[in-house]
Structure formats: structure tokens, C-alpha cells
Amino acid sequence: MPEQLDKYDRQILTLLQKNGRITNQELAEAISLSPSPTLRRVKQLEESGLIDGYVALLSARKLGLTLMAFIGISMDKHTPERFAALEQSLALYPEVLECHLITGQTADYLLKVIVRDMDAYQQFLLNKLTRIEGVTGVHTSFVMKSPINSTALPVIQS
């Protein structure tokens, strides 16, 4: 699919990642194309699945969510059923922003979690995370600063 992207498609994808609410007129002007073909291109990018959807990015701090952590989880069994059960449980917790099955570490999973404060983290850890069947180890690293924090994917030329 990426090899089919021309310079206009790449520009559209880059601009939409920066501002998903940009009007078609503004988008067309920014890429020096008329509105009609710009809209057609956006629709094609959506239909092809390159654009998964649109979201509003919220301010965690203004919502009172000030403590972010990366949590490594070790499992007792490495079976598809055990992994599926863990993933289903984690999907129920809004504190879990990301969940990754990983290799090369002592942990099986790496989570990105956000909570209000240390008390909320302790409640999450003790009342939710460690109660999931199969979890044998939890190692947490707390985020002190996030100098780079982007949701934009690089739209590269092939």
C-alpha cells in the first residue's frame, strides 16, 4: 500500500495527523490541490484503511492524570489461552493506554498506564493487575518526563 502513495497523499496524511479537524478547503490549500480531488483522496485513504479513524487528544494533566508508568508483566504460562485471558482482562481497565506482547526482556508484556497519583497506582496494582490469573511478576518504571510524545506516524516516501 505505501508504494501507491504519491506526494499529495503523503501530505494529506501528515496534515491530518497534526489536525484531524482541518477543513477540506484548508487541506486543499495546504497541499496546493483543488477541494474536489482533495476530498476524493481523503475518502480513498479512509476506504483503503490507511486512515483508521479520527480522535480528540485530551490533556491528561487537566483531567488530573499525572502519573504515567510502564509496567512489565511476567506470566506463569506461555500459552495462547493465558495470553488471551490477560489481554481480555487488561482491555477492561481504562488506565491501560497500551499493551504490548514483547520479547527480549524478562517480562512478557509491557503496559503503558496512566493514573491520578501514586495512591491510584497502588489501587490499580493491588486490586486489578496482580489479581489477574497468571500474573507472576510486575516491574514498574515511572515516567518523570516525556520530551517526545507524538501520535503521528512517519509518512515516508517509498
UniProtKB/TrEMBL annotation:
Highest taxon, organism lineage: Bacteria
Signal peptide extent: none
The keyword Hydrolase appears for this protein: no
UniProt KW keywords: DNA-binding, Transcription, Transcription regulation
PANTHER family in the cross-refs: LEUCINE-RESPONSIVE REGULATORY PROTEIN, TRANSCRIPTIONAL REGULATOR AZLB
One Gene Ontology cellular component annotation held by this UniProt entry: cytosol
GO BP: any one term: response to amino acid
HTH asnC-type domain ranges (all copies): 5-66
GO molecular function ontology, one term from the record: sequence-specific DNA binding
UniProt name for this protein: Transcriptional regulator
PROSITE patterns, per database record: HTH_ASNC_2 (PS50956)
Species assigned in the record: Methylophaga lonarensis MPL
Keyword Transcription regulation (UniProt): yes
Alphabetical list of InterPro entries matching this protein: ArsR-like_HTH, AsnC-type_HTH_dom, Dimeric_a/b-barrel, Tscrpt_reg_AsnC-like, Tscrpt_reg_AsnC/Lrp_C, WH-like_DNA-bd_sf, WH_DNA-bd_sf
CDD domains cross-referenced by the UniProt entry: HTH_ARSR (cd00090)
